[in-house]
Amino acid sequence: MRMSKVGLLDHNDGSATTLPDIEQLRSWLPVDALVSQGRPAIEWLNMSGVVLAEPFFDQTVARVRNETATELPLITDLAELMRLEKVSDSLSPSGFIFHSSRCGSTLVANACRALRDSLVIAEAPVLDKLISRFFTDTDEAGTKELLYSAFLRGAVSALGQRRFGTERHYFIKFAPTSILQFGRIRRIWPGVPVLVLYRDPIETIVSNLQTIPDWMTIESNPAVSAAVLGVRLSDLASLSPEEFCARALGRFYSAAAAEIDDNTLLCNYNELSPETLLRLIRFFRVSVSAEETETIIQQAGLYSKDPLRETAFTDDGHSKRASASTSLREMAEKWAMPAYRRLVELQEPKTMPR
After folding, report:
1. Helices 222-229 and 125-136, interaxial angle, to 10°?
2. For the chain, which domains are there?
3. For residue 39, which phi and psi values (nearest 5 degrees)?
4. Which of 181, 234, 246, 155 is nearest to 209 (CA)?
5. Bigger pLDDT: 77 vs 305
6. Residues 123, 225, 200, 292: what is their CA dihedral angle, to the nearest 10 degrees?
7. Which residue has the higher pLDDT, 184 or 11?
8. Would you state the pLDDT for residue 140?
């Protein structure tokens, strides 16, 4: 799976286009945020009639690019997001999924996707990169925060377009680093139920070291990496992958703990089961039919990141903990465990919705 890189990327292939009529963007989705001819821009792809069936949004985008290789994407400035928001037939979000990485969020997103007439956007690069601007491009007056909040709202609206006319539920799973902007995102959509998934940091670090995600790749955007950890740019070079991940997880957990309210639900990875998945969906105020229930139960037994839905799920938590080195355990205890234990404490008094 290709994970989206954090931050705006240069785009110099000469395909930049500004649409003369915003109506032409109906059924086109924003698939990336980049820099075109020195200016921030949005890349759009014609997704008319496309079912977002893959576990990750960029997997669907890759499929569409392969199937329609002769159709070029469109490049516009960011203002088109807000213009489209005013005229598009878009759903309001039904639920947000935040997560601390490798903790079952894809399984939950797949369960939401099993609902009839649902739309699930899972870690869309355009959202990840717009949210990254809150890390690196804000000012004391707050004007840039307001501007990027408007762009983010427009991107969520554009991704939530009804392209088949029957969509009723709209779920968004954010990338792991977005949890650090939990408060800002909550202020834009105060009424949307928020699920926060998290996992034992030792298991999470082991998993991330086995397959390094882009948010741990410092060279993709050092400024964002430093902001994620709350360190100076000059400090990054001295950090081992174990320490980088442990520091990030501690901040993810702390950010979640700071924003918990009655419209937020915590769920530990070790609680996930078919029954829990159904309860999580009900937390989003969505009823589940008998047929949908059966589909969700079947999916719970499969490896969530397999786009073909052919690989059986195996619980590898014990093996991950057993393989953790002493240094990894020390980093987890120093940087992540206190905040993780705090989340566990916050969750314990709450009862999972039935």
Report:
1. 70
2. 9-347 (3.40.50)
3. -125, 145
4. 246
5. 77
6. 0
7. 184
8. 67
Eight-class DSSP state of 218: G
User: Which strands form 95-99's sheet, in the order they lie side by side?
Assistant: 118-122, 169-173, 95-99, 194-198, 264-268
Parallel, antiparallel or unpaired: strands 264-268 and 194-198: parallel
Joined tokens for residue 305: 């990141």
Whole-angstrom distance, CA of residue 292 vs CA of residue 214: 33
pTM confidence score: 0.91
pLDDT classification of 6: cutoffs 50, 70, 90: very low
With a cut of 60, say whether residue 19 has pLDDT above it.
no
Q: What is the CA radius of gyration of the chain?
A: 20
Nearest Cα to Cα of residue 102 among 82, 127, 123, 126: 123
d(C-alpha 109, C-alpha 129), whole Å: 20
- Host H or E run for residue 121: strand 118-122
Q: Kindly give the residue spans of alpha helices, DSSP state H, lying in the chain.
A: 57-67, 79-87, 105-113, 125-136, 143-159, 182-188, 201-210, 222-229, 241-258, 274-283, 290-300, 317-323, 326-335, 337-347
Q: Which two tokens stand for residue 204?
A: 């999470």
pLDDT of residue 1: 32
**Model confidence at 175: pLDDT above 90:** yes
Q: Which two tokens stand for residue 187?
A: 């202020």
- Pick from 274, 253, 270: which is nearest to 346 by CA? 253
Residues in the chain: 354
pLDDT score for 11 = 47
DSSP states of 143-207 as a string? HHHHHHHHHHHHHHHHHTB-SSS---EEEEE--GGGGGGHHHHHHHSTTS-EEEEE--HHHHHHH
